[in-house]
Design a protein that fits this description.
alpha+beta; 7-stranded antiparallel beta sheet; 13% helix; Glutamic_endopeptidase; Neprosin
Length: 406
């Protein structure tokens, strides 16, 4: 009898071993790093930087001005917490990311523009050749009859956007932006990405600084096609830009379990429950760091030493989609829900409570008289902007589309 039980025990061990080998290994997508050893702080500018671990009272008062209590219900959950003194840093799918928003090409465009102004006798075909190389954000302005040539965010023909943006000719500066995002899962394939996004940009001469955030489905950055909290930044000393917390001098991670790269585990169902998350980036009035919050919870920040000391000169809200490698076919991915926006928000991707932070750190609804909407290809994407919906929704934007041959 004892030998029978021994045989059964051994068989059980063999069975469990087979199961373990046949079960795919799911590698952890983040690593816990000592908070003072993360990449962002390994930069000469950060040598004497004092890590900010919580928002100031002044910043908390900014975050508390939202008109919707749902911002405190976090639909983004961390699976595990890092040990005390450590923070989670997302591990990208590849270390050879090609980001389509690289600024050097736009910088070259600026030099070409200046050269054309000096050498007006150049042939027209040379001008046309230079002009057709890039699509600058002068094209984004439907109302701007005399565009000012300067480096811009959108510089590739394979990118598409459905956005609301502040006018180019304004002299205002902003200290942050926020919105309540619906969480959707557009169906993208390899080398495609699709985002619900907010941009804070500052341009000086041929250099642009930018802080961008929202959710993204990005198959080159992540190992799957699920929507994730995602950030991107550019600065004076890092003009190629960088996602999340991957580069020195950039984003500093603070929260122990919620981090850029984390999956949104609840996605909207058409005509079903609408899952939302409130995201904000605002300059802390005390530390001058640009702080990322989910609801009223501080996740991390971009240090004042390298990011927009003068404030943002442009603010964009909306959808952004494209491909990550120029060698691939230029079939454009879907945006939002993959359907064109409608008045029925239960069927559309939306951003509600569109707000920005003014130079005196007051939070206000975006002014419909200071913004314009733009869709680069209405055959593939659409956008609807509502100046005021109701007390809870405030100014609302809905966008999306199936993509395709755009």
């Amino acid at each position: 009898m004892a030998s029978l039980w021994l045989k059964l025990f051994l068989i059980s061990l063999i069975y469990l071993n087979v199961i373990a080998k046949s079960t795919p290994h799911q590698e952890t997508e983040f690593e816990c790093v000592s908070i003072d050893k993360q990449s962002a702080l390994q930069h000469p500018l950060m040598k004497n930087h004092r890590i900010q671990t919580r928002p100031s009272r002044e910043l908390l008062s900014i975050l508390s001005t939202s008109k919707d209590d749902r911002i405190r219900k976090i639909d983004l959950k961390g699976s595990e917490e890092c040990p005390k003194g450590q923070v989670p840093i997302h591990k990208p799918k590849t270390n050879n990311l090609i980001h389509p928003q690289q600024i050097p090409r736009a910088g070259r465009l600026l030099k070409q523009t200046r050269s054309r102004r000096v050498k007006k006798k150049k042939k027209n075909n040379r001008r046309k050749k230079d002009k057709n190389k890039l699509i600058t954000s002068a094209v984004l302005s439907q109302k701007n009859k005399n565009p000012i040539h300067r480096p811009k965010l959108f510089t590739e023909t394979h990118l598409h956007y459905a956005i609301v943006r502040t006018f180019e000719n304004t002299t205002k500066k902003w200290r942050g932006a926020q919105a309540l995002f619906s969480i959707n899962k557009p169906r993208v394939v390899q080398n495609q990405f699709s985002k619900a996004w907010i941009w804070l940009n500052y341009i000086q001469g041929s250099v642009m600084s930018s802080i961008q955030f929202g959710w993204a489905v990005h198959t080159n950055l992540y190992p799957d096609d699920r929507p994730r909290l995602t950030t991107f930044w550019m600065s004076d000393n890092h003009q190629k830009g960088c996602y999340n917390a991957l580069c020195p001098g950039g984003y500093v991670q603070i929260h122990k379990s919620i981090y850029p790269g984390l999956v949104y585990d609840k996605v909207n169902v058409p005509v079903g429950k609408q899952n939302t998350v409130h995201l904000s980036v605002a300059e802390d009035p005390v530390t001058k760091n640009w702080v990322l919050t989910v609801g009223s919870i501080m996740i991390g920040y971009w240090p004042r030493q390298s990011h927009m000391a003068e404030g943002a000169s442009e603010v964009y809200f909306g959808g952004f989609a494209g491909i990550s490698e120029l060698s691939q076919p230029t079939t454009s991915p879907p945006m939002g829900t993959g359907e064109f926006p409608t008045k029925d928000l239960s069927r559309s991707c939306f951003m509600k409570q569109l707000k920005y932070v003014l130079s005196d750190y007051t939070v206000v609804d975006i002014n419909p008289n200071e913004v314009e909407d733009y869709v680069d290809n209405r055959k593939c994407y659409g956008l609807m902007f509502y100046k005021y919906v109701d007390y809870d929704s405030r100014e609302t934007l809905t966008f999306g589309g199936p993509g395709g041959q755009c």
